Amino acid sequence: MTVSAVPPATPGAFLAALRGTRAASPPVWFAGPAGPPVEAGAPGERGSVLEVDPARIAGRTVAPVVRHGADAALLAAHVAVPLRLAGVALDIDADGGLRVAEPVRTGSDVLQLRPFDPERLGPIREAVVLALAALGGTPLVGVAAAPFTLATLLIEGGPSRDRLRSRTMMYDDPHSWAALLNWCADVAGESLRAQIAAGAAAVQLVDPALGALSRGDYFKRVLPHTQRVFSHLRGLDVPIIHTGIGTGEVLDLLARAGASAVGVDRRIPLDTATERVGGEVPLLGGLDPALLSARGDLLEAHLHDALARGTVARAHIVDLGGALPPGLNPAVLTRVVELVRGGAR
Length: 345
Prior knowledge:
Shape: globular
CATH topology: TIM Barrel
Distance between the termini: 37 Å
Number of strands: 9
Number of domains: 1
Oligomer: single chain
CATH architecture: Alpha-Beta Barrel
């Protein structure tokens, strides 16, 4: 991998913000609530997003820092890769969606899942080491999918808007549901722990499926398993980011799960999010991806509004509130960094 890192404009500000310390200019990165984005034209086309080649993962990880001067990098391994390393047969369909060859839909299916062996995470650990060598002093954040998102992928077997099969299992077979989420929590927790051991300075747990749940169901049937993920990180002094999509009704519970900072999707303004999680929780978010493709004056006004709303949080990191638009000109992201650093004072 032949890349060289661009030093962040505010060294140390990203990690300091996760711990609640504000900088004169908010840190900025492009992670989003569903995990690492893969830009159009970046190494790793659609057909290889589930690859476990450490050098290619590292190259995608470093790219946003090299191209745009982002203040941190998120490990650019697809959040389903740990499932593949655990022995789950996964593939990408013609529309770019994940497919599970043998979905998990009964108690017997759950019992067939073998205890996860952390030694299988070797490629992920190596990708972290390679990326850190190229990043210099820019912090690297490890990433994993939360138990609910992993479980719904295994149950649905592919893309699903309402996660109907998953919610049916949650109600109809709570014992198998709990066993499956515990297995997924252990996969996620061991993955995050391995990335920290390899040098990640912080970690992010993403739950893009979470919007399918009511607040009550999340509290009773999912939150304990998310907390199980974080139990794998006890004794490790690293900030923990927790984020997801459609999480407006449970933002406070994301913080209560054990996170140091909470990501906010595009549906919730940052000042409203602060009211819901409390003034002591650092927030990530503020960027509506739809505005990235809008006229320059609209994007600039949007950024100024987001920065103003973010001032009420204990600390704010500018981040995507959704997925990058397909075909977005990467120069727009560089412009975002310039605007944030030039307009936040």
